[in-house]
Amino acid sequence: MSGEPLKEYDYRNCQSLFGYAAAVHERSGGICQLCGAGSAKLDFDLWRQLTVEHLIGESQGGYLKQISTALAQRFPNLSTGELSDLARRIDGANTITACSFCNSTTSRNRVPIDMGEAIHQTPDGSPDEIYEHVTADLRHILAAKRRDVRWKLAGVRKAYESIVVPRLMDRRALPPLDSPG
Ligand SMILES: [Zn+2]
Questions:
Q1: Mutual orientation of helices 64-74 and 80-94 as an angle, nearest 10°?
Q2: Which of 84, 102, 94, 3 is nearest to 56 (CA)?
Q3: Looking at the DSSP assignment, which residues form a beta bridge with residue 98?
């Protein structure tokens, strides 16, 4: 051991929590938008498990760059500024905070509509009207994901209480393994 103090870790390297992700977590109040975990109180050990989930994922055209391309194709009459503003707003509506459980149990599900389709099916209108039309589809996807999570959590909670807790309590009653820290 040298006497030099360790340089403080740069938190911005945690990309699931800072940078692009920080705005998503701030919008959601640090609450999983699928199961509601984190709503009772702010807790560091839960907060650091939060992830950004795209309601429509990259494989279905849901990333910002893909949204921008689809909007420019569908609405060539909008100005560059209107297009980029609209793309950012739709991207904001397409990104939610999910806890690691919800993210891992839902993020690979394909959703019924591609972002490109949603945008191409949107009638001509003002940027606000276009936003409302596209995000109506996103609200349906969010509601379906919430139902899916509720169903899965009910089964997982039952197993946790009947099977997992007794085993974990038995383990904890034994002499400890080398503990972290
Ligand atoms: Zn969750």
A1: 130
A2: 94
A3: 51
User: What's CA 64's distance to the chain center, in Å?
Assistant: 14
**Cα(105) to centroid(ligand 1), Å:** 9
Binned at pLDDT 50, 70 and 90, residue 1 comes out as low
Q: What is the pTM of this model?
A: 0.87
Residue 27: CB atoms within 10 Å: 14
CA of 114 to the centre of ligand 1 (A): 23
> Are 48 and 17 in contact, with CB atoms under 8 Å apart?
yes
SS3 52: strand
User: 134 CA to middle of ligand 1, Å?
Assistant: 24
* Ligand 1 ion local residues (Cβ < 5 A): 32, 34-35, 37, 99, 102
pLDDT per residue over 85-126, tens digit each?
A: 999 999 999 999 999 999 999 877 889 999 999 999 999 999
User: What single-letter DSSP state applies at residue 76?
Assistant: T
CA of 102 to the centre of ligand 1 (A): 4
CA of 36 to the centre of ligand 1 (A): 6
* Distance in Å, CA 59 to ligand 1 centroid: 22
